[in-house]
Specification:
- The chain starts with a helix and ends in a 10-residue tail after the last helix.
- Helix 11 packs parallel to helix 24.
- Strands 12, 13, 14, 15, 16, 17, 18, 19 and 20 form a 9-stranded parallel beta sheet that branches. Strands 21, 23, 24, 25, 30, 32, 33, 34 and 35 form a 9-stranded parallel beta sheet that branches. Strands 2, 3, 4, 7, 8 and 9 form a 6-stranded parallel beta sheet that branches.
- The protein contains 28 helices and 35 strands.
- It folds into 3 domains: about 240 residues, Alpha-Beta Barrel (TIM Barrel); about 240 residues, Alpha-Beta Barrel (TIM Barrel); about 250 residues, Glycoside hydrolase/deacetylase (TIM Barrel, Alpha-Beta Barrel), CATH 3.20.20.370.
- Helices cover about 35% and strands about 15% of the residues.
- By secondary structure, the chain is α/β, with parallel strands linked by helices.
- This is Polysaccharide deacetylase family sporulation protein PdaB.
- It comes from Sporomusa termitida.
- InterPro entries: Glyco_hydro/deAcase_b/a-brl, NODB_dom, Polysacc_deacetylase_ArnD.
- GO terms for molecular function: hydrolase activity, acting on carbon-nitrogen (but not peptide) bonds.
């Protein structure tokens, strides 16, 4: 061990860890610029009609500024759009706290990210008009400009949502008579004015939230202004961006601390506000439920959703985006004869796809091809019909370089499925006859994909390709460096890309011909290469056995590896009965819970009476296990990982475990899992057990810093619902997976912060969990300051002071990005263990919890448990 640590120090010194305008001219005759939303959402007829209406009638739209003060209710609005991950977290919070909200979205952001707006509607929230750009001081604009702005935004939002907004809201604007007349002529019955604005930088505590809510009055309209980020990216959010969940007892701090990341501060402030709002017994209504009548408002309220319906609603909200392409990998068409747009391929393959479009700038294309050759990347190039005709030499060069070809379509406004289908057939024929290429990949590079386009793609048994990351934003045309673009595309919280994601580049848009090539290279370097386990002593570049590197491949190649594709969500019929979410949980209540807890709770030395065992008497707490050891007579230890992270963190752990032929149990915090189901599926695909770590990481009990007493953060029913939701998410991704006929999804639960309460364990068992596993060694690896320090901590958890193996020890580690040294420390420890002779009594085996926590296991009865026969292959 000493020699390995010395080697590590040398290696770290040697190498370390690898760790304008919105109205622009066209850049090619046949391929309009990305800002040509007017072509995709033509609104000339609507603008003309509104101008005519304005001349005929001086009527003004009414102003909604508040609702009825007779009832304890208010309206909540979100103005503008944040990045897609932040938007989904907001939707999750609204569903969790049963809050209604109205989202005012601007037209341009809706055109650039229609999926986020669709997600808002799918989650059951209202979508209204925030003008075309969300600009301020609109009262200074001429009336004709107002009409064009309102009408154009209305057209974009109507096409995207299938329903025209009824309300208009202008950002930081005085509602003059002229503006109200323009709004009425454009078809809006009312405009909205907010009396209160939630300032995330001020709502830094529950006390601040309570003070803010105290200023509100029944009937208030409260607005949250969201960050403007014109192009969204799908990644891991939440714990990956900050500190991991803590294993020791916290104070009463249910929400993350504010950081310098505005997205984190915003989410934390919104949740604090919603919690306090519920405590104040405010009901929420949509803004449209408020109306003005002689200065007195009123409102109507619909019943709140609760119980099982609440769980179902939250699941729908959280998976709405991913469900949109759930069967795209398997077939081009669905039951309604419409192709699904593939934005992320549901696969466990460690691969990412690059796609490119726009051949008009041949200089940029040549530079991109040169970069891809240098980087050994094969990509998919989507070409439109005019490009085949005008740039055949360029296209032949792309083909000669070994890249894949797909068809780019740009349906005209109102084009039928038959017309689009005719274009696709003609392009396929031209590619085959003139270039010797056959393809079934189709992409619409810009604009909302219509039902007619989906139908055309499906009818020809083609696949409709989208993107998870669109590198080009409308404001980037004149940017000069890749760093400028990277900062706005990814921000600081996106550590890496994810397996199965499709990244799209456009080559004929930037003024700088080399910018796309620079971006393709830098994205690979910073968001793909960093996923690999690449140390000075084990680097994929020098070690052929190191297979931790993600590859960049063409879309079609990834789709062709059908053995690695899967159906998401998993068909419930394919889930074994024992791990099905529909299987009833243990029937326990206050009267009979103790025998089950004594039998099924594997504790921790820090969980003791008066400290973290709320509801248990002193005598009962003494009978609870505090060893955290699994009963076994062998030198077996158990590796476990908590929370969630990005591919950059988790892939390194997976590689180290694979390298040493060790399997572990991953206790998943599910709040952000559905943003990256491929990563969860990949964990199980390598034979690791999947356990439940809750959805929101709220402990069963926490210490109130004011009283020093223990309190609950959720009642029994709420906690049971949260755990059931978390388990359903895990089942949706891994429920059909097994190894040696044993399901990989388990009914094991690790309590957040390791705290327990009597009511909480009742909820755990009622929600379907069979064993509660805390563990014998909490490494606090996310706080480790060096690899040697963490190696010693893990050793202390595995060995006694005499160097003997602590048989059955359960080591608690983390898979978050902040646990930076975990994979390397584990690699060193397992390497040293493998070097020992088999007869060495200090040599341990790595076991899986599922091989020991079987029917009949009892933590309180060691003798009975040791009589059980461990299954073959327990150390696999």
């Amino acid at each position: 061990m000493a020699a390995l640590l010395l080697l590590l120090s040398v290696c770290l010194l040697a190498g370390g860890v690898f760790l304008k305008d919105l109205f622009t001219a066209q850049t090619g005759d046949e391929y309009p610029t990305i800002t040509d939303w007017k072509r995709s959402y033509q609104a000339e007829a609507e603008i003309a009609q509104a101008l005519e209406q304005l001349q005929q009638s001086p009527d003004k739209a009414s102003v909604i500024s508040r609702g009825s003060s007779a009832q304890q209710q208010l309206a909540l609005t979100f103005d503008g759009l944040a990045d897609r991950g932040t938007m989904q977290r907001i939707l999750d919070l609204l569903a969790k706290y049963q809050v209604k909200a109205t989202f005012f979205v601007d037209g341009l952001q809706t055109a650039e990210d229609p999926q986020t707006v669709i997600n808002i509607k799918t989650a059951g929230q209202r979508v209204e008009n925030y003008t075309l750009y969300g600009m301020g001081k609109m009262e200074k604009l001429p009336v004709e400009r107002l009409i064009k702005d309102f009408s154009q935004a209305q057209k974009i939002i109507s096409i995207t949502t299938g329903q025209g907004p009824n309300l208009l809201k202008c950002n930081d604007t005085q509602y003059t008579d002229q503006l109200l007349q323009a709004a009425k002529a454009a078809g809006f019955k009312s405009v909205v004015s907010s009396e209160f604005y939630l300032n995330a930088t001020q709502i830094t505590s529950f006390a601040a939230a309570e003070a803010f809510v105290g200023t509100l009055r029944p009937g208030s309209i409260v607005a949250v202004k969201l960050l403007r980020n014109a192009e969204p990216v799908i990644n891991e959010q939440g714990l990956a961006a900050g500190a991991p969940a803590v294993d020791k007892q916290p104070g009463l701090k249910a929400l993350p601390a504010l950081t310098d990341q505005p997205e984190t501060a915003l989410i934390a402030a919104v949740e604090r506000f919603l919690i306090v709002l519920n405590k104040a017994d405010y009901a929420t209504v949509y803004v449209e439920d408020f109306y003005q009548h002689n200065g007195a408002g009123t409102a109507k309220i619909t019943p709140a959703v609760s119980g099982p319906a609440k769980i179902a609603a939250l699941i729908r909200a959280q998976v709405a985006e991913l469900f949109g392409s759930r069967t795209a990998y398997a077939a081009a068409a669905t039951g309604d004869n419409q192709a699904r747009e593939i934005k992320t391929i549901f696969t466990t393959e460690p691969a990412i796809a690059y796609t490119f479009g726009g051949l008009a700038n041949e200089t940029a294309v040549a530079d991109v091809l040169g970069r891809l050759k240098e980087l050994d990347i094969k990509a998919t190039f989507f070409v439109a019909e005019p490009e085949m005709q005008k740039h055949p030499v360029v296209l032949r060069q792309i083909i000669a370089d070994g890249h894949e070809i797909g068809i780019a379509i740009r349906p005209k406004n109102g084009e039928t499925a038959a017309e689009t289908g005719s274009t696709i057939r003609r392009n396929r024929q031209a590619l085959q006859e003139q270039f010797g290429v056959e393809t079934n990949l189709v992409k619409q590079p810009w604009g909302a994909v219509t039902a007619a386009a989906r139908e055309a793609v499906a009818s020809l048994e083609c696949r409709l390709i989208g993107q998870a990351v669109n590198v080009v934003q409308s404001k980037h045309q004149d940017y000069t460096s890749a760093d400028q673009v990277m900062a706005e595309i990814f921000g600081r919280s996106v550590h890496s890309l994810a397996r199965g994601q499709i990244v799209h580049f456009r080559m004929d848009y930037y003024t700088n011909d080399k910018l796309i090539g620079d971006l393709a290279a830098i994205i690979k370097q910073r968001k793909v290469d960093n996923i690999a386990y690449a140390t000075a002593f084990d680097n994929p570049a020098s070690n052929p056995a190191n297979d931790s590197q993600y590859r960049i491949k063409p879309v079609g190649e990834i789709l062709s590896h059908t053995q690695l594709l899967y159906q998401y969500p998993v068909d419930p019929a394919a889930v074994p009965a024992h791990v099905s979410a529909d299987r009833p949980g243990l029937r326990v209540d206050e009267a009979n819970v103790l025998p089950e807890v004594f039998k099924r709770y594997i504790g921790n030395k820090d969980v003791a009476y008066g400290k973290s065992t709320l509801g248990f008497s002193k005598m009962e707490a003494r009978r609870l296990d505090n060893s955290g050891l699994i009963h076994t007579g062998d030198n077996v230890v158990f590796l476990t990982f908590d929370d969630w992270g990005t591919d950059a963190a988790i892939n390194k752990i997976l590689y180290v475990l694979r390298k040493h032929k060790a399997t572990a149990t991953f206790f998943i915090l599910t709040n952000n899992v559905l943003h990256n189901p491929n990563l969860l599926r990949a964990i199980a695909a390598e034979g690791h057990n999947i356990g439940n770590h809750s959805d929101q990481h709220k402990p069963m009990a926490a210490r109130d810093p004011k009283t020093a007493g223990q309190v609950i953060l959720q009642d029994k029913q709420e906690y049971s619902q949260e755990l059931a939701l978390a388990y359903k998410k895990l089942q949706a991704v891994t429920g059909d997976m097994a190894r040696h006929s044993q399901p990989l999804l388990t009914r094991f639960f690790r309590p957040p912060t390791l705290a327990i309460s009597k009511a909480g364990v009742e909820a755990v068992f009622a929600a379907g969990s069979e064993y509660i596993v805390s563990g014998s060694c909490s490494t606090n690896d996310y706080k480790a300051e060096s690899v040697p320090q963490l190696v010693n901590i893990i050793k202390d958890g595995i060995y006694t002071k005499n160097g003997e193996v602590k048989k059955g020890s359960v080591v608690v580690m983390h898979m978050t990005d902040s646990a930076a040294y975990t994979a390397m420390a584990l690699d060193i420890l397992l390497t040293a263990n493998e070097a020992k002779a088999d007869a060495d009594p200090s040599k341990f085996k790595v076991g899986r919890l599922a091989d020991y926590l079987t029917e009949g296991y009892s933590q309180i009865n060691r003798r009975q448990t040791l009589q059980l026969t461990a299954p073959a292959g327990q150390n696999i």
